[in-house]
Write a structure and sequence with these properties.
Elements (H helix, E strand, L loop, with lengths): L1 H15 L8 E2 L3 E6 L6 E6 L5 E4 L8 E3 H4 L7 H4 L9 H9 L13 E6 L5 E9 L2 E6 L2 H6 L5 E3 L22 E5 L2 H9 L3 E4 L8 H6 L6 E4 L5 H16 L3 E4 L8 H6 L5 H14 L4 H11 L4 E6 L2 E7 L1 H14 L6 H8 E7 L2 E10 L5 E8 L7 E5 L7 H11 L9 H12 L4 E5 L2 E4 L4 E3 L3 E4 L2 E4 L6 E3 L2 E5 L17 H21 L3 H8 L4 E6 L5 H11 L17 H9 L1 E9 L3 E4 L5 E4 L14 E7 L7 E14 L7 H4 L2 E6 L6 H11 L3 H4 L1 H8 L1 H20 L7 H18 L7 H23 L3 H14 E8 L2 E8 L9 E4 L1 H11 L6 H7 L7 E9 L6 E8 L5
Parallel strand pairs: 10-11, 10-12, 12-13, 17-20, 20-26, 21-28, 27-32, 27-33, 28-32
Antiparallel strand pairs: 1-2, 2-3, 3-4, 4-5, 6-7, 7-8, 8-9, 14-15, 15-16, 17-18, 18-19, 21-22, 22-23, 23-24, 25-26, 29-30, 31-32, 34-35, 36-38, 37-38
Helix pairs in contact: 10-11, 12-13, 16-21, 16-25, 16-26, 24-25, 25-26
InterPro entries: TOPRIM_DnaG/twinkle (IPR034154), TOPRIM_dom (IPR006171)
Organism: Pseudomonas proteolytica
Protein name: Toprim domain-containing protein
């Protein structure tokens, strides 16, 4: 009743006030018409009297289920704060734990336990619930936060005590002649069985067995029911303990609760009764069946089929039963009044058992590519020799016919063989594909907008909650499965976040480092930001050799769990066109860093020419749903697939990006120098760079835990910083304002993650970012250096003063020698003519490639187009660059 009251009062109250579920129909019996977290429809409901599990009534389309105990975990956690011990009740926290988390009626457990304290690995002290055990005690840590502080260890025993050959029994329980006594592992398992009306002993560990208790009751015809955990450890020791009990001439049975639940889970769900115990005993008999024939007989008793499949010893068999002959002989015995053979003996006589596979193929899930729709069927193949066990994906046609399946086993497993026919495979296929789980395979690492889940190889996050990949390799988020099919980019799951490195980071990297850290953190939420603001800025890091930008990038990558990585070269020496496209599309809500794209060439005359990567090709990556590449689908239709950019772009090189106004205004530029480098700072930098990725990668987990809070801070701060930058008359371009406001909003949101990041430091960063915005405005407003030099040479060479003598007399006239246009408002320049004039006049010959990049961005004279014009100088058509005289209005 106490356990039910917790649900009836507190959980129902939480349901009624849950804005995310927003129940519209709150009645006396049900809460209905809530928003399903999975499908988003108003189809969620829950019973008021048994508010244990939320369900969606779209049984065919959704099937969403969620335990309220997990949704409102705060009602069952941090009990030391909510229910602290008092003088009147020194066991208050332990009482709350046993009632809320275990569902026990503590009125029946008076004097069994006490509340105590235990020191954790990190030095903290945690509240525990303690039970006397043998010559000491066993205790369970109450709060989940303290379990984490203890390295995940939930329980422990008194130092130097021993419970070997002993165990724990409920106080007052007496074992009498002919009793059934269950032997379980944990004390809570034992309490659950005892409260359900069964006699029980807790062995504390699978490696221990209560031989002392058994010896004390030897010969009393007690039936010892081995009910250890239904897991790998339990399966290894159960047959051994059973043989030892039989060797002592004791009665020994086995009972298994099931792989998904322990005995106390069954008790908490209200199902621990005689019906369940009979099924558990049946499962135990199946587990210890000595032969395939015995196992077949037990299966036949439960479900009398003439033909069925069975597993034994990790081999697959078929059983063909002649039930007509069995019934004939049984009927004869009834007519004669004498039993000549038992049903089991007749079953052995008329049952034909054949091996059809030397392993057991366990179907796990269908993996479906989220973009292409291609499918794979994942199997776990278990062999009699565990060293041969393997997990392999098979193509759909591999299970289409017996020959294909047998061939796939030979090709994909270490010695697997299948000898069954179409009938056997059809039975297997029906079993495998009946309500099969389909796991969406993402062709990238990171954020999946469809499910709002961050998915990495070994872990993921959904709405701030962490999910670890299960034994099958995918994340179970609600009723859906999710995994990444990308194996080339793996992120390490770090330990819990510790910001102790922050002061060293600021000391070494300064305000540029803080800006980079803010942008880097924001990349984890790029899609959420773009969905509202339609864009996300590019970050550019430049610097002198040895300024520290490479060390900064490597450190930032370690914060996300990627060690020994800086970025990739986008030019031909670093990546092919396809390789670069894949690199841009293989991550989502993560940064993509392109490095060393510029190259310097020294010509024969000793002049240096810096050749830059053409960043104009990627300026669309700034926008939401930017299309990287479109490819055709292999089909008879005109369908295409588009690779969408879901990440954020960082550019790192020595020279600053040169380009059009369109690309420059999309960039926030930070320049690193060697100023301030000292031997003392070198020591700090060495200490910072020595931190392992496992320690730093906890930052990723912390950021994703704070997803909702970070985004809330970001959007609240953006409007504030946008207004500040717009108020600065030196910044006129709205895109420059937006980009630098985004960067500062990211800094404000990231500040909350670091206790050592004060408001004074944030103000300094704003002034720095504001100055970078002003610099960017000045750069956009000024002429490109190459274009400026071109026009300087052009105006010097273009005008030639000649003397004309006619009937009006002699006079000086200025003629244009390079402008081929007849329209006085235009300038038409032939590049070859211009270069020849430069050579004849001894002027610098600017390479044509540099001019092709610089002139379209000219602000001295506005570029119009490149086309043929009839030259007024040479009186013939020439290919010319056309400009309108004067700059942009």
């Amino acid at each position: 009743m106490q356990f039910e009251d917790i649900y009836r009062l507190e959980v129902v109250n939480a349901l009624e006030h849950d804005n995310d579920l927003d129940f519209k129909d709150i009645g006396d019996k049900y809460l209905q018409k809530g928003i399903c977290p999975s499908c988003g429809e108003r189809t969620l409901y829950i019973a008021r009297k048994q508010p244990y599990q939320l369900k969606c009534n779209r049984l065919n389309q959704c099937q969403h289920e969620e335990k309220t105990r997990e949704r409102y975990s705060h009602l069952f956690e941090n009990l030391s704060e909510r229910f602290p011990r008092t003088e009147l009740n020194p066991n208050a926290t332990a009482d709350a734990y046993l009632q809320r988390n275990r569902g026990f009626d503590i009125s029946k457990m008076k004097g069994w336990y006490e509340q105590a304290r235990r020191q954790m690995l990190d030095g903290q002290w945690a509240d525990t619930v303690r039970f006397p055990l043998c010559n000491g005690y066993w205790e369970r840590i109450i709060d989940a936060t303290m379990v984490a502080a203890n390295g995940g260890d939930k329980a422990g025993i008194k130092y130097k005590m021993s419970y070997k050959a002993g165990g724990w029994m409920p106080p007052g329980m007496v074992i009498e002649k002919g009793d059934n006594v269950y032997i379980v592992e944990g004390i809570f398992h034992a309490i659950a069985l005892h409260l359900a009306g069964y006699k029980v002993i807790a062995s504390i560990s699978a490696n221990n067995f209560p031989w002392n208790v058994i010896e004390a009751n030897k010969g009393n015809k007690v039936r010892w029911i081995i009910a250890l955990d239904d897991d790998k450890a339990g399966h290894l020791v159960i047959p051994k303990y059973r043989r030892q009990l039989h060797a002592m001439d004791e009665l020994a049975w086995v009972a298994l609760a099931g792989k998904d639940r322990d005995w106390d889970d069954v008790y908490r769900d209200g199902q621990l009764d005689d019906v369940f115990m009979q099924e558990a005993s049946y499962q135990g008999r199946l587990f210890v069946a000595p032969t395939p024939s015995k196992r077949a007989y037990l299966l036949h008793l439960k479900k009398p089929l003439n033909f069925f499949l069975l597993e034994f010893g990790n081999r697959l068999y078929t059983a063909k039963v002649d039930t007509d002959e069995i019934n004939k002989e049984l009927n004869k015995d009834q007519e004669n009044g004498a039993v000549t053979k038992t049903r089991e003996e007749l079953f052995d006589k008329y049952c034909d058992i054949k091996q059809v596979a030397n392993c057991v193929p366990h179907f796990e899930y269908i993996q479906r590519d989220a973009l292409s729709g291609d499918q794979q069927f994942f199997f776990q193949f278990n062999f009699p020799n565990p060293a041969q066990n393997c997990k392999e994906p098979l193509a759909p046609n591999s299970i289409g016919n017996p020959r294909s399946f047998a061939q796939s086993l030979l090709e994909r497993t270490p010695g697997g063989n299948f000898e069954g026919g179409e009938k056997v495979l059809a039975m297997l296929r029906s079993r495998w594909l009946d309500n099969a789980l389909t796991v969406r395979a993402l062709p990238f690492v990171g954020y999946d907008a469809a499910s709002k889940t961050y998915c990495y190889q070994t872990f993921g996050y959904h709405k701030g909650r962490e999910y670890l990949a299960n034994s099958h390799g995918y994340l179970e988020v609600g009723k859906t499965g999710l995994k990444t099919s990308l194996s080339s980019l793996a992120l390490t799951r770090g330990t819990d976040f510790d910001p102790h490195w922050f002061s060293d980071f600021v000391e070494v990297n300064g305000l540029n480092g803080l800006a980079a850290l803010s942008w880097w953190t924001a990349t984890l939420f790029t899609q959420q930001i773009r969905s509202k603001q339609e864009s996300w800025l590019f970050l550019e890091l430049t610097g002198d050799a040895g300024a520290g930008k490479s060390s900064l990038l490597r450190f930032l990558w370690r914060l996300l769990g990627r060690a020994n990585y800086e970025g990739m070269k986008p030019n031909a020496t670093g990546a092919s066109a396809i390789g670069l496209t894949r690199a841009l599309s293989q991550v989502s809500n993560l940064p993509v860093v392109l490095i060393e794209s510029d190259s310097t060439i020294v010509d024969a005359q000793g002049r240096e020419t810096t050749s830059q990567y053409n960043w104009e090709d990627w300026k669309m990556l700034y926008d939401q749903n930017a299309n990287i590449r479109t490819v055709g689908v292999k089909s008879s239709s005109n369908d295409t697939d588009s690779l969408i950019f879901l990440a954020a772009l960082c550019i790192s090189q020595n020279a600053s990006v040169k380009g059009s106004e369109a690309i420059l205004t999309r960039i926030a530029h930070m320049h690193c120098t060697r100023a301030g480098h000292t031997p003392a700072r070198k020591v700090i930098a060495t200490r910072l760079n020595a931190l392992p990725v496992e320690e730093l990668a906890g930052y990723l987990r912390r950021c994703l835990e704070q997803e909702a809070s970070w985004l809330e801070h970001y959007f609240a701060a953006f409007a504030q910083y946008e207004a500040k930058l717009q108020a600065n008359p030196a910044i006129q371009h709205q895109r420059i304002v937006q980009c630098h406001a985004q960067l500062m909003a990211a800094a404000k949101a990231t500040q909350a993650l670091f206790p050592g990041w004060g408001d004074q430091l944030l103000d300094q960063l704003f002034k720095h970012v504001e100055n970078r915005a002003i610099d960017r405005q000045q750069r956009v407003s000024s002429e490109d250096p190459t274009a400026a030099r071109f026009w300087q040479i052009y105006h010097y060479l273009n005008e030639k003063v000649i003397t004309i003598t006619d009937q009006e007399g002699g006079r000086e006239v200025t003629q244009e020698t390079l402008n081929h246009s007849s329209d006085r408002s235009l300038i038409a320049i032939n590049i070859e003519h211009f270069h020849n004039a430069c050579r004849l006049a001894g002027q610098e010959v600017i390479h044509a490639t540099q001019l092709q990049r610089a002139l379209p961005k000219s602000s001295s004279h506005t570029y119009v187009e490149t086309r043929k014009v009839r030259s007024v100088i040479e009186k013939r058509p020439l290919n010319c660059w056309i400009f309108r005289k004067g700059g942009k209005e």
